[in-house]
Design a protein that fits this description.
There is one protein chain. The protein is α+β, with helices and mostly antiparallel strands. Helices cover 22% and strands 30% of the residues. It has 4 helices and 9 strands, in the order H-E-E-H-E-E-H-E-E-E-H-E-E. Strands 1-2-7-5-6-4-3-9 form an 8-stranded antiparallel beta barrel.
Length: 203
């Protein structure tokens, strides 16, 4: 039994309920409009509610407008890794102004999701550090990015929160653009001419 002691408490509760309903009912898909074409992503708010809510917060604030896909990882440009993956990565990159707090890591052993082809997942450094950066998987299923996988030394994996349902040919095209050395890891993974993200909108 919940006792609503003040009108303010009731207003906060109603706001929270309406926010949750907007996520679970109206936010099943988003469209990523890029200079190489459109990518449609289905979101999984029931599996990864915290991650989806965080992503949509930036979407609704138009924070992804005029950003980019700036990194692509292929089998031919990750010689320093013993655990190869295939992804494209995008987001706000080095724009750290007005970020919302980092979110808890929703591990794949809890969400039931996996880094299969087309999965969209949050990039991070430490656990519980994800904010705006995301990546899309391609090539083959990549369980080494799941909880317990060895791609990240902490074995905690990354947070899948949706998958591409249309536009994988655009993802493939971005994956194969020309790259140069990325200073962060001294490998040829930085996209020479980053692929523009015009916007990400609810569909």
């Amino acid at each position: 039994l919940v006792v609503l002691s003040t009108p303010c408490t009731l207003i906060k509760l109603l706001f929270f309920v309406s926010f949750c309903l907007s996520i679970f009912t109206f936010a099943q898909k988003v469209i990523i409009k890029t200079s190489e074409g459109d990518i449609v992503v289905k979101l999984y708010p029931k599996n990864a509610p915290i991650t989806v809510a965080n992503f949509l917060k930036y979407v609704d604030e138009n924070r992804y407008e005029n950003t980019s896909f700036y990194r692509t990882v292929r089998l031919d440009n990750q010689q320093k890794s013993d655990i190869p993956i295939q992804v494209i990565q995008g987001g706000l990159n080095d724009d750290e102004t007005n970020l919302h707090p980092a979110i808890p890591l929703e591990r794949t052993n809890n969400t039931g999701l996996s880094h299969k082809i087309g999965a969209i997942s949050m990039a991070r450094s430490e656990p519980d550090s994800a904010t705006t950066e995301f990546f899309i998987c391609l090539g083959k299923d990549q369980s080494q990015l799941d909880f317990g996988g060895k791609r990240n030394p902490d074995l905690q994996g990354f947070a899948v929160f949706g998958r591409v349902v249309k536009g994988m040919e655009v993802v493939e095209k971005i994956n194969h653009v020309e790259t140069v050395i990325w200073e962060a890891n001294k490998q040829k993974q930085w996209i020479k001419n980053p692929v523009k993200i015009f916007s990400i909108k609810r569909k």
